[in-house]
Amino acid sequence: MKASQPDALTPEETAAVLRAAGEGRHGVRDHAMLLMLYHHGLRVSELCRLTLADLDLESRRLWVERLNRGRSGLHPVPESEAQALAAYLAQRAEQGTLHLPPLFLNERRGTLSRNAVYYLVRRAGEAAGLARPLFPHLLRHSAGSKLVGEGHDVRLVQEYLGLRTARSVLRFVGTASPDDPNAERFTALLHSLGRR
């Protein structure tokens, strides 16, 4: 990504992308999928590996199996995501596919591939009118930037995103809004680590 481009979506861009994802042929599935990528800061492989057994919609919990030696664990499912997933699972019930383990299915009732996810995310970015290409990792980075910008503890953000070190969280500092009350504190932290 070019230095002139931000490493995170603005809240307005995020909302536009999530809206656009719901408008396509498989909009119910795609909207739920992009919400999960964003809300949980998932890597594409982590999303593709999700199964129905990982989701407990009644208690609004999701088991996230982190890759790259990240920390796996239970994540809360926000209300908007729970509603999107309920709509998607209702659609799957109508199609008679709830017996199939993968959470997100392709048209042939198989596991959605990484390439398919990249394509769907890129298409949602184009439909939302983004000035740059959208990749799944930008949704993950946007989630991290939002959490850091809201002032959440660095260790908590590290654990939530399945990052190996707290230092990894610092990449999200530069993408927080300049008027963010935590920006100065995190910038000082960067200086103390010699990262700027």
Walk me through the structure.
This protein starts with 10 loop residues before the first helix and ends with a helix. The protein is mainly alpha-helical and 196 residues long. It is built from eight helices and three strands. It has a three-stranded antiparallel β-sheet, with no helix packed on it. Helix content is 48%, strand content 5%. Strand 1 and strand 2 (61-64) form a beta hairpin. The chain has helices at residues 11-21, 27-40, 44-48, 79-95, 114-127, 136-149, 154-161, 183-193, and strands at residues 55-56, 61-64, 73-76. It has two domains: 11-135, hpI Integrase, Chain A; 140-193, no CATH class.
Q: Biggest β-sheet, characterized? A: 3 strands, antiparallel
The domain tally reads: 2
Instruction: Supply Rg.
Output: 17 Å
Q: Write the H/E string, N to C.
A: HHHEEEHHHHH
Question: Whole-number average pLDDT?
Answer: 85
Helix content: 40-55%
Question: CATH class of the largest domain, anyone?
Answer: Mainly Alpha
Taking strands numbered 1, 2, ... along the chain, how are they ordered across the largest sheet? 1-2-3
Strand content is 5-15%
Explain briefly what this protein structure is.
The chain is mainly alpha-helical. It is 48% helix and 5% strand.
